[in-house]
From TrEMBL:
Coiled-coil stretches noted in the UniProt entry, renumbered to this chain: none
Organism: Ferrimonas balearica (strain DSM 9799 / CCM 4581 / KCTC 23876 / PAT)
PROSITE patterns documented for this protein: HAMP, HIS_KIN
Protein name as it appears in the record: histidine kinase
Pfam families noted in UniProt: HAMP, HATPase_c, HisKA
Transmembrane spans: 157-185
Source taxonomy: Bacteria, Pseudomonadati, Pseudomonadota, Gammaproteobacteria, Alteromonadales
Its EC number(s): 2.7.13.3
Keyword Nucleotide-binding recorded: yes
InterPro entries listed in its UniProt record: HAMP_dom, HATPase_C_sf, HATPase_dom, His_kinase_dom, HisK_dim/P_dom, HisK_dim/P_sf, HssS/ArlS-like, Sig_transdc_His_kin-like_C
Limits of the Histidine kinase domain: 248-456
Length: 456
């Protein structure tokens, strides 16, 4: 018969074990201590009681107290000396000596544990041993003699808990903490692995899966891991299928477009260059540009899962910045650059180049005169700021300009070029490095694009 292996059963089992042990100690320790402390009267102490009773019977009553003082010292078979005291009580348990107004606490506890005066025994206390009673006939009355030896002895540490409730509470807390700590580790380890796998999948690692140890569990966490892997497989299939579809469609569109451009070129060679053909040529060029952007977006999605490697960010962006400077000169605009000589980074070169190139080209297209690029290294991240003095973007659209095919009507039109894919490509490249990109308007006009990339 297999025990249930559910999380609820494990939680109940841990609670049951902890509660049972604590309750068992609370209920069982007093009985265990009683059985340990209570023992039959051994022959040596019985002999001491008998000799003391004989001497007590031979001694006049007025000298009983002096006799008791004479018998204070006791030596065992090993030669060790112990302090001994004797107490004479009547059948009601009251002390016979007038000076003994009240018996010691240990003797009173001994009398409470005593089943019968006719059954002598020995009872252990932390620092003393009480033994007896021994029946003594004095002056025609029945009395009972009880002895007490000051003899400390080692007791089990569990009995220490009975005498110190605070220590018992600490032990109970420590034990319950240990049990539930082990349970938390048993449940937390697969959850942490599942969290790390989900994070890797969210960062674009489509091959991330939960390991076999978690999958082999027979509880709800194992079922969750199996469902997670199935979900990851479905997501990977859909994403890769979408990427293949986009790439395939883009490539297929290039074939008729190339034929169209070739036919236009042949027509122009024959002297056929009407306004309609010019319009067709412009539309074909725009369609070609859009297909290139779609192919770039498709390649970006495929490169997101590429492994990152150490590089110098400045070396990677140098060619992009030089090309942007050349374009700025041709457009009679000024590009100012502020950046360190070297900046170690860990990333994917093509994605970093494309992200910054799109932002620079966008800024140059809409700037009136000035574009600035600033690369700043901070303790835990790299900031790349690209600013222009163009018309800016409406405040309500600063977040939506990064969506694919989204274009701001007030600042862009089809004649300006672009199909609203450049910023989407930039955002995808930045997010592939666990970074973020945001847009802010400048005063009095212009736009600042800020890219934040965490340092590995």
């Amino acid at each position: 018969m297999k025990l249930p292996n559910h999380l609820l059963f494990k939680l109940l089992l841990a609670f049951w074990i902890t509660s049972s042990l604590v309750l068992g100690l609370v209920i069982g320790l007093p009985h265990l201590q009683k059985s340990f402390d209570r023992e039959p009267l051994d022959p040596r102490l019985a002999t001491v009681l008998n000799r003391t009773a004989e001497r007590l019977a031979e001694t006049p009553p007025q000298q009983w107290r002096q006799l008791s003082h004479k018998l204070r010292h006791y030596q065992d078979e090993r030669g060790r000396e112990f302090r001994m005291s004797f107490y004479l009580i009547d059948k009601d348990g009251r002390p016979v000596f007038r000076g003994d107004r009240r018996l010691p606490r240990e003797v009173r506890h001994f009398l409470l544990e005593l089943d019968s005066y006719q059954q002598p025994m020995r009872y252990r206390f932390p620092d003393e041993v009480v033994f007896g009673p021994k029946e003594v006939q004095l002056n025609g009355e029945t009395h009972y003699l009880i002895g007490k030896i000051r003899a400390p002895h080692q007791r089990p540490w569990l009995f220490f808990l009975m005498a110190h409730p605070g220590a018992f509470l600490l032990v109970a807390i420590a034990f319950s903490g240990l049990v539930f700590g082990l349970l938390a580790w048993h449940l937390g380890k697969p959850l942490r692995h599942l969290k790390d796998t989900a994070g890797a999948l969210a960062r674009g690692d489509l091959e991330a899966r939960v390991d076999g140890d978690t999958l082999s569990r027979r509880d709800e966490l194992g079922q969750l891991a199996t469902s997670f892997n199935q979900m990851a497989d479905s997501v990977t299939t859909m994403v890769k299928g979408q990427q293949r579809l986009l790439s395939g469609i883009s490539h297929e569109l290039r074939t008729p477009l190339t034929r169209l451009q070739l036919a236009l070129a042949l027509a122009r060679k024959k002297g056929e260059d009407s306004a309609e053909l010019q319009r067709i040529g412009r539309e074909a060029e725009q369609l070609d540009a859009m297909i290139r952007e779609l192919l770039a977006l498709s390649r970006l999605n495929m490169q997101i899962t590429d492994s990152k490697h150490p590089l110098d960010l400045i070396d990677v962006l140098t060619d992009v910045i030089d090309d942007a400077g050349f374009e700025a000169e041709q457009m009679n605009k000024q590009l100012s650059v502020t950046m360190p000589e070297h900046l170690p980074f860990k990333g994917i070169e093509n994605l970093l180049r494309r992200a910054v190139e799109n932002l620079l080209r966008n800024a140059l297209r809409y700037a009136e005169n000035q574009v600035s690029l600033e690369i700043v290294r901070q303790p835990n991240e790299v900031l790349i700021r690209i600013s222009d003095d163009g018309p800016g973007v409406p405040e309500t659209e600063l977040e939506t300009i990064f969506k694919p095919f989204y274009r701001v009507a007030e600042a862009r039109d089809r004649d300006s070029g672009g199909w609203g894919l450049g910023l989407a490509i930039t955002q995808g490249a930045v997010e592939a490095h666990q970074g973020r990109v945001r847009a802010n308007n400048r005063t009095p006009h212009g736009l600042t694009m800020t890219v934040t990339l965490p340092l590995a």
